[in-house]
């Protein structure tokens, strides 16, 4: 009786073990198939092309800062407003700097008179060459002070370095700012380029002057681009490198800075 019971237990354990082995083998085969399938997809041209991602950027996009401190009295343009090169973007209360400028001009005139008088006295042997040289040095210092004060006066106004649009306002009218504070961000919305993130496997295939088709995401629009700059280094973490491309034959109204897409080798 006992031997029959023990024999039955052994049969049950053997059957369970065989089922477990089949299950493990099935899972292992499924994992192997999945890996093989992913490797096959990764090696396909379509998969590789989809990895060449890019984003449309402005060739000129900059945050403008104030060269001097003071109170903002005018920010004439709001976000999204267009401007031309040389247009006023910000104005500070400039009365203090204008007063300093006028004071330095007055000091310069006084030093000029002193220098001219020293030259006259030298001709009559009333003073020596040293006194004249010192008077000339003081005149040069006064002239430099005028230049410095004039730079401060010019810094009261920030003018557009190029034509474009306002992207962000980083300050408000009547706000007091310090020298170096960011005031406004502007972009050139007409002269655009494409920044590409390219897998390192393409490094010797996609070079300068290479032409590609750039497909805008969620849009039927395709644009022709050509590589103009290629990074000399590859990021070891992402195994990608950056490249920049020029856009050919496009409608500016259909492209916006920040749009993303996929580049395909032509």
Automatic annotation (TrEMBL):
InterPro entries listed in its UniProt record: MdtA-like_BSH, RND_pump_MFP
Keyword set, alphabetical order: Signal
Pfam families membership: BSH_RND
Single Gene Ontology MF annotation: efflux transmembrane transporter activity
Cellular component GO terms, alphabetical: efflux pump complex
Signal peptide (from-to): 1-20
Domain Multidrug resistance protein MdtA-like barrel-sandwich hybrid: 61-184
Coiled coil: none
The keyword Signal is annotated on this UniProt entry: yes
NCBIfam families: RND_mfp
Record family assignment: Belongs to the membrane fusion protein (MFP) (TC 8.A.1) family.
UniProt-recorded name of the protein: Efflux RND transporter periplasmic adaptor subunit
Source species of the chain: Spartinivicinus marinus
């Amino acid at each position: 009786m006992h031997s029959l019971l023990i024999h039955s237990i052994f049969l049950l354990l053997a059957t369970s073990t065989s089922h477990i082995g089949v299950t493990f083998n099935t899972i292992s085969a499924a994992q192997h198939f999945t890996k093989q399938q992913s490797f096959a997809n990764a090696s396909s041209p379509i998969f590789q092309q989809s990895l060449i991602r890019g984003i449309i950027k402005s060739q000129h996009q900059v945050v403008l800062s104030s060269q001097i401190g003071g109170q903002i009295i005018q920010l004439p343009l709001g976000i999204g407003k267009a401007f031309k090169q040389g247009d006023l973007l910000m104005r500070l209360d400039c009365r203090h700097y204008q007063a300093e400028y006028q004071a330095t001009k007055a000091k310069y005139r006084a030093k000029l008179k002193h220098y001219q008088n020293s030259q006259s006295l030298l001709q009559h042997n009333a003073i020596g060459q040293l006194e004249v040289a010192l008077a000339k040095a003081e005149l040069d210092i006064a002239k430099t002070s005028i230049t410095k004060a004039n730079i401060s006066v010019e810094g009261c106004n920030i003018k557009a370095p190029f034509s474009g649009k306002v992207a962000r306002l980083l300050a408000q009218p009547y706000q007091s700012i310090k020298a170096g504070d960011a005031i406004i961000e502007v972009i050139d919305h007409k002269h655009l380029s494409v920044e590409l993130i390219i897998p390192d496997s393409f490094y010797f295939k996609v070079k300068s002057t290479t032409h590609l088709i750039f497909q805008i995401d969620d849009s039927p629009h395709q644009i022709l681009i050509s590589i103009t700059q290629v990074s000399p280094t590859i990021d070891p973490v992402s195994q990608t490198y950056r490249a920049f491309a020029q856009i050919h034959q496009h409608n500016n109204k259909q492209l916006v800075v920040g749009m993303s897409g996929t580049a395909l080798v032509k």
